[in-house]
From TrEMBL:
GO MF terms held by the record: phosphotransferase activity, for other substituted phosphate groups
Key words, A-Z: Membrane, Transferase, Transmembrane, Transmembrane helix
Protein known as: TIGR03013 family PEP-CTERM/XrtA system glycosyltransferase
Keyword NAD on entry: no
Location in or out of the cell: Membrane
Entry's transmembrane regions: 12-34, 46-66, 78-97, 109-128, 277-300
Lineage per the UniProt record: Bacteria, Pseudomonadati, Pseudomonadota, Betaproteobacteria, Rhodocyclales
Similarity field: Belongs to the bacterial sugar transferase family.
Alphabetized Pfam families for the sequence: Bac_transf (PF02397)
This protein's GO CC annotations: membrane
Bacterial sugar transferase domain: residues covered: 272-455
Length: 461
């Protein structure tokens, strides 16, 4: 994992992106240079244009999810993913060809060659990211501990999303009574931690021990490992790096107070507000035709009203009314009782089901963003009734209210639609990661992920 502006990016994904960008850049240069009548003076035009083309295609492929692992999916799912990428990327590629200033000497054959190269990269990535990476690109990980925390870490390491990390085994500590892991995975009688690290070529050690007092941890040996260049992580840092979440079960108030992150400075707020103003204005202008069509469809199916306003809790606990397209019947809560919205809610109309799937029902919230009540990216705002319930039941739930709520958020693109207290706990862990690490870069990442979710229909309500 590489940490860039407080956010963790998988190093293997960045290597893939750099490799694909270089291949596309070189492919364009070669395809055009091999054309007749291309002189030396044309290089000034060819090189920047080729670089721009490569960057545009890589950004598009990243947004459509080609650099996300999809291990365990059937062949038909991978083929469908490749097909969607081709359908989206090829027309854009031809459009970029027409815009860039090389049309006067780039033949149709050169264009077709580059398009075929792009298609080959899409197919290669579609299948390459179907499984885990080879051992030559993996970092070997040793887990210190054998309890339930260690077992949870192993599950994460074996998840295809944790590519680039190879689990090698558990090393028991001196006071390991709670053994929740498979006995055959425990590395007994191997000697000290440093010896095991040397024997197995370990790159990282995860300390999966909740109780650290009373000499449970071999601190001197862990320090020796770190001095040798081996990374040593605790549970909180491990989940933050690999899962993009701050785990509630590994969280203490002292970590929130004394740890990095959770900075709410004036300059950061100013940059975020300027970005929200500019982006919401542009998006509102672009969304006008879609919003008019949606309003018409709602009126034709179920009559008015087109919009509905609902009280939500915003930054610092301030309440405001969120604006959305109405996707349920007018009598959805006729008894006055607040209810969680379900994934297959029978209160949702036919038009409502479609606009929820495409996230069109969220578009009017751009007005809330423009007015400063919300941000484009942030934790989703909840109703006061549920906020009171969740604050009483979930530790640190109120921390998510120290930033403005968002139209989309880190939790929305990382976790499927949820409608229970347990789901709220899972989503809070992603919200805490966002609150801790939010920057303009992370906002852009979330917006790109949102486009992918809309295009693929993941997590649709």
């Amino acid at each position: 994992m590489l940490k860039v502006f407080s956010h963790y990016f998988p190093a293997t994904t960045l290597y893939q992106i750099i490799f694909d960008a270089f291949v596309l850049f070189a492919g364009v240069v070669v395809a055009i240079v091999l054309q007749p009548d291309v002189g030396i003076e044309s290089w000034r035009m060819i090189l920047p244009s080729a670089l721009l083309f490569a960057i545009a295609m890589i950004v598009l492929n990243t947004i459509t999810g080609f650099y996300r692992p999809v291990a365990g999916r059937q062949l038909k799912d991978v083929l469908a993913r490749v097909l969607v990428g081709v359908i989206v990327s090829i027309p854009v590629a031809y459009g970029v060809f027409r815009v860039l200033p090389w049309g006067e000497f780039a033949s149709e054959a050169a264009e077709v060659s580059v398009i075929l190269l792009l298609g080959l990269i899409l197919v290669m990535r579609g299948f390459a990211n179907r499984g885990r990476l080879g051992a030559f690109m993996s970092r070997r990980v040793l887990v210190l501990g054998t309890g339930s925390e260690a077992e949870s870490v192993e599950r994460v390491l074996r998840d295809p999303a944790s590519r680039g990390l190879k689990f090698v085994g558990f090393l028991p500590t001196g006071d390991d009574d709670d053994r929740a892991v498979a006995p055959d995975l425990i590395l007994s009688n191997r000697g000290a931690v440093v010896d095991v690290v040397d024997q197995l070529g370990v790159n990282e050690v995860i300390v999966a021990v909740r109780e650290r007092r009373g000499g449970v941890l071999p601190l001197r040996e862990l320090l020796d490992c770190k001095m040798r260049g081996v990374k040593v992580y605790d549970l909180s840092t491990f989940y933050e790096r690999v899962r993009g979440q701050v785990r509630i079960d590994a969280l203490k108030a002292s970590w929130l107070i004394f740890g990095d992150g959770f900075r709410q400075g004036f300059f950061r707020s100013l940059v975020k507000r300027c970005f929200d103003l500019a982006a919401s204005l542009v998006l509102l202008i672009l969304a006008v035709p879609v919003m008019l069509l949606t309003a018409l469809l709602i009126l034709l199916e179920d009559g008015g009203p087109v919009f509905y306003r609902q009280l939500r809790v915003g930054q610092n606990g301030r309440q405001f009314k969120v604006i959305k397209f109405r996707s349920m019947g007018t009598d959805a809560e006729k008894d006055g009782k607040p209810r969680w919205a379900q994934s297959n809610d029978n209160r949702v109309t036919r038009v409502g089901r479609l606009i929820r799937k495409l996230r069109i029902d969220e578009l009017p919230q751009l007005f809330n963003v423009f007015l400063g009540e919300m941000s484009l990216v942030g934790p989703r705002p909840e109703r006061p009734f549920f906020v009171d319930q969740l604050t009483a039941e979930i530790p640190f739930y109120a921390v998510r209210h120290c930033v403005k709520p968002g139209v989309t958020g880190w939790a929305q693109v990382r976790y499927q639609y949820g409608a229970s207290v347990d789901d709220a706990v899972q989503k809070l862990q992603y919200d805490l990661y966002y609150v801790k690490n939010h920057t303009l870069l992370l906002d852009i990442v979330v917006l790109a992920e949102t486009v992918r979710v809309v295009l693929t229909g993941e997590g649709a309500q």
